[in-house]
Design goal:
The protein is α/β, with parallel strands linked by helices. It has 17 helices and 16 strands. Helix 6 links the parallel strand 9 and strand 10. The structure holds guanine and fe (iii) ion. Guanine (GUN) binds next to helix 2 and helix 10.
Length: 572
């Protein structure tokens, strides 16, 4: 009689426990019980461990099949999946206004949101993203739909309701107090699910769209609930110049975030291409991570993020697709872009040198596919404070894994394998050439969430214990959600709560109130208006929406006059 919720695979497992090395666990039997790896035995011990765990069978991988840890995407804008692959013709600050805010706002149509978010989560799972750190949108309800979709399909997620109370468009902005209230509601809703796969995240979009009052309030919520935090930092010249103009009293984005209390060991800041070494050291001291998003940095950034340099200064670094600033949802693609990015740095240094000699110093920034895989697994796990749970194949960790098949030949697969190629070469081909077709099964917490073109949990309607067990192969599927975190007594159930009365539908449906969702704000144009492409403050195309604009201006003055010295111009 098979032990309940236990299964085993015999074969080769690739992972990267240390940066720069690719380890192969060759011909091992890996046993998963209740979603966790409980034993990694040698292949020749198969009969013994099969008996010990009461397994009816140990499933053997075919030649050319391997397991690799599930990918961890540390930066995704869930609603932007809608327009991924389009609209990259303008700089960041204009891109937000032209494409991003209208698209995100349209998720107030909850039926549309439901449909789109199921497609999104399926697409990411199909591409091997077992864990994603998601930005949702501004309005509360669509974010609940996003959480429900992740829960249903069995993905692991850190999810945030976006907060913005200034410098957004009229119909996509919130009042500071409403934003704080909804952020807390989102946190309690998500924690109230008691699903250990899904955690809420405090999400001030970035400094230009968040008043100090909002950022400080959000930091308090994060502290109260022990939440993750995510935002964007030192992304490109337009953004950085905008912040410098709005907050001249601070030396850098990092100094602003520090003063607001948003740099914690559970914070992930996207991009960081323009961080100084002092900024990086400061983030490292706080335990804050950077999500390296090479593809969107190519699109919007004005500098390269130097992974090896940042790691050498002690920074935690994960990898992100940054959909839709990055035009691909694939973490394989992101890994390749990370490698290309690193070689661009080398090429740039050579060009600047004016010579034809590549020096060891120029080589320092170059990473290989092995380091890129580390970023996509272990680095991401560290960034999300999950390094003891996922990222490698080790006893005690949860089984988040991708079953890779390199046997797809001809046009049924993305690459060909030739005689004499060994496992390591086939695996390297997969990392460099493979795609979702090679990912024949995807596991999260020991549950098969994707097999072939099927998403088994969708059929069963939920990602809970034993969900989605197919009749033909149930030994692979059984797993239960681990024990729930304590302290859930403050949680509220918002599942059926009405949309807050002061919210409005901003486009598309025709049934919503028109205009701003900024509550009783009566104008509140920020003096100076919106930051332009080059970061300069321009005419009033966007609005600030706070409870009291006069108070907001005072708050700026206060922040300028009373900020802790360490956070101000003095370097930290
Ligand atoms: N900065 C503020 N918002 C965004 C966004 O949605 N994408 C990117 N890439 N950068 C941002
Ligand atoms: Fe982003």
């Amino acid at each position: 009689m098979a032990a309940e919720n236990t299964f085993a695979f015999r074969g080769t497992y690739y992972h990267t426990p240390t940066y720069g090395s690719l380890d192969a666990l060759r011909d091992v039997v890996l046993i998963v019980q209740e979603g966790k790896i409980v034993r990694i035995a040698n292949g020749h011990e198969e009969t013994a461990v099969q008996a010990e765990f009461g397994l009816a069978e140990v499933r053997r991988l075919k030649a050319g099949q391997y397991f690799v840890p599930g990918f961890i995407d540390t930066h995704v804008h869930a609603p932007q999946y809608l327009f991924t692959g389009t609209g990259t013709d303008v700089p960041l600050m204009e891109w937000l206004r032209k494409y991003t805010f209208p698209a995100e706002c349209s998720f107030q149509d909850l039926e549309a949101a439901r449909h789109r978010y199921l497609l999104l989560v399926k697409r990411f799972l199909a591409n091997g993203t077992t864990t994603a750190m998601y930005y949702g949108s501004l309005h509360l309800q669509p974010n609940l739909v996003l959480v429900d979709s992740i829960e249903r399909l069995g993905q692991r997620g850190v999810v945030g309701k976006v907060n913005m109370d200034r410098l957004s468009s009229d119909d996509y902005i919130e009042n500071t107090a409403d934003g704080l209230r909804d952020a807390e509601k989102f946190v309690t809703y998500t924690m109230g699910k008691k699903c250990s796969r899904i955690q809420p995240c405090i999400t001030p979009r970035f400094i230009p769209t968040c008043t100090p009052e909002l950022m400080k309030g959000l930091a308090e919520i994060a502290q109260k609930y022990g939440c993750h935090i995510q935002s964007h930092i030192s992304e490109c010249c337009g953004q950085v110049n905008c912040v410098r103009e709005m907050h001249p009293e601070y030396a850098s984005d990092a100094a602003v975030f520090e003063e607001m209390g948003l740099l914690t060991s559970r914070t992930v800041m996207a991009h960081g291409t323009l961080l100084t070494d002092d900024d990086i050291r400061h983030l490292a001291r706080r335990g804050t991570a950077v999500s390296h998003c090479p593809l969107s940095n190519f699109m919007f950034g004005d500098a390269f993020f130097r992974v090896n340099h940042a790691l050498s200064l002690g920074l935690k670094v994960g990898l992100g697709t940054d959909v839709a600033g990055g035009i691909s949802p694939s973490m394989l693609f992101a890994q390749r872009m990370a490698v290309v990015n690193s070689r661009c740095i080398r090429a740039h240094k050579l060009a600047v040198s004016g010579g034809t000699t590549v020096t060891p110093e120029m080589e320092k920034d170059v990473i290989t596919f092995k380091e890129a895989l580390w970023l996509a697994t272990v680095g991401g796990a560290q960034a999300l404070d999950m390094a003891d749970i996922v990222g490698t194949f080790e006893v005690g960790k949860e089984f988040d894994a991708l079953l890779v098949d390199t046997n797809l030949s001809g046009t049924s697969g993305p690459f060909d394998v030739f005689e004499g190629e060994d496992d390591d070469q086939r695996f390297e081909k997969f990392i460099n050439l493979g795609d979702d077709r090679n990912l024949i099964e995807v596991y999260v917490q020991g549950v098969c969430v994707k097999r072939g073109s099927e998403f088994p949990l969708e059929r069963s309607g939920g990602g809970g214990a034993g969900g989605g067990v197919p009749e033909d192969d149930d030994r692979l599927m059984l797993a239960s959600t681990p024990p729930e975190p304590a302290g859930a007594d403050t949680l509220v159930d918002l599942a059926n709560e009405e949309e807050p009365a002061d919210s409005s539908v901003c486009n598309g449906n025709g049934d919503g109130a028109e205009g701003s969702v900024g509550g009783d704000n009566d104008g509140g144009d920020i003096s100076g208006g919106v930051c332009g492409v080059d970061g300069s403050l321009q005419a009033n195309e966007m609005r600030i929406c706070g409870p009291d604009d006069r108070k907001r201006d005072d708050a700026y003055a206060t922040a300028g006059g009373e900020a802790a010295p360490s956070a101000k111009r003095a370097r930290h």
